[in-house]
Structure formats: structure tokens, C-alpha cells
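Blinded run. Sample ID left blank on purpose so nobody reads anything into the name before looking at the predicted structure. Input follows.
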Amino acid sequence: MEHLQHPPGPEIEWNESYYFNFYDPRNRVGGFTRIGFKPNKREAVGYMFLFYKDEILKVIFREEVETVPERIEVGSLRYLPEWTLTFSGNMAGEKSTIRKVSVELGYSPLHTEFSYLECVTPQQHEIGRVVCEDHYEQMGLVTGHITVDSHSHDISALGERDHSWGERDWNAPDLWIYATAPFSPEFGINIAQMLLKREEISTGFIMKNGENTPVRDVRTETITEKGRQKRVTYCIRDVKGRDFTLTGDVLNTAQIPYRGTGISVLNENLTAFTCGTEKGYGIAEYLMKMG
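Blinded prediction complete.
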């Protein structure tokens, strides 16, 4: 496993963060979480959103920190390497409803973690440092239990975690697209596409039978209505010259605002993906700049 804590750089927006998503179609329960530390701003933020049936539940914690702590936790949201996600408390639902939720999920990796640095040139890395210095991704099996009010669900799902550190200015990219589509324990696709200072950067990997192959190029078509993505298509070529077409229909969208040098909204789209004969579920993430 990669090192999980790093000494902060001098940038005020220097950040170390840990992200995790999953979806269990049998129960129609899934979600994503993020814990991020910005010690130069003395800020820690943790949030979790659950796609629960047709509802979205959310909880957000904020605390003061002086450094990146050894314990990856904010409030009652906690990651315990290697890897357990736990939470117990209230989550806000739609129409101001409050639900009592407990989460205990274990994560078993399906392949070695992948660094996006395997996809970029030194020049692209220097340009991209405004959004992260390094970025690891890893798909896995997710099992455990989620209870919402009195309803308990045994979870068996595919998911993905990521870990990044360095400066993180969400308002810097002119384009930010991230998608993760784990189809089976043997096959999954991850891509990210950025436009920074007129430089288009494509990253990601194809996972087949535990082997990671870096992505060389991504071409994207997106159908958006009223600021929300409805259907996505990614034409992907890896470094072996293989082509993959990943299509997705958005099922639900959670929106997260970010304020800094501007205002942006991050759309986390629960998506039903298809690649050839493979079908699965994952996240299509789009950064929408508001000003």
C-alpha cells in the first residue's frame, strides 16, 4: 500500500484526501465518502452520501486540524486501513427528514493501486500539480452491513477508493471529469480528464485480471440537462493500443459545492455503465464551474 500520510507543502490549499465509493444493485444501496485534510487552513472535512433506494442521504463533518493525523477520521466517519469504513449517526434525507444510519464496510482490493503519474508527462504533471501532486486508485470488493432506521442490508458490491495529496484548487480546472466503472472482479475501467491552462490531460487505467494498463487517450461525449449529466460516452485508448467504449446512464446525482478562488459544483453521478457485453455500476464525476 502507498504511504497514507505526507508532510504538507507550503500551499494554503494543500490537501490530503481519501475517497471511497460502492454500489450494491441487489439492495439498491450505494454511496461515496471523502475525508480531506488541509492543515495549512487548519481544516478537516468528512462527508458521506448514500444512494438509498431513490433517496439521497448525506452527512458532513468539519473539524480543526494542525497536521495530517494518523487516524483517518472526521466526526464519526472513519477509515481504518486496510480498509474498513465505519459510521454511526444521523443522516439528512430529502425534505428535511432525519434517518438513523450505521455503516460498517470492509474492502478487499482486486489489484495493486494505480498512480495517475503513470499516464502523464513531466510537463503535464507540473501543470496538474494545482489539483494534486499524486493520485492513487484501486478497485475492490465491498462487503458489510448498512442499517437505515430499522432496515438492515447485507452489502456485497464492487467499489473503488482513491488517495491523493498536494495542492487542491477545485476552481482551477476548466474541465474535470472522473469515472470509475468496476464491472467484475476481473474487469474495470477508470478514467479522468482535465483541461488546465489549455493543456488537455487524460489519465486512468484498464484493469483486467488484476493487471493495470495505463490509459493514453480519452474522448468524451456528454448529454447534460439543466446542469446535470444524463448520459455519458467515453472513447478510451490504452497504451497497448486497445480501444474501449464506455457508456453510462445517470441514475441519480449528488451535488457538492466548493468555494475558493471561485464557485464550483461537483456532480457525483451514480451511473449504470456498459462496455461491450459488460454491465455494471459506478460514479461519473463532473466539475461544474459556476463563477
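Unblinding after everyone has recorded impressions. The first helix runs from residue 122 to 128.
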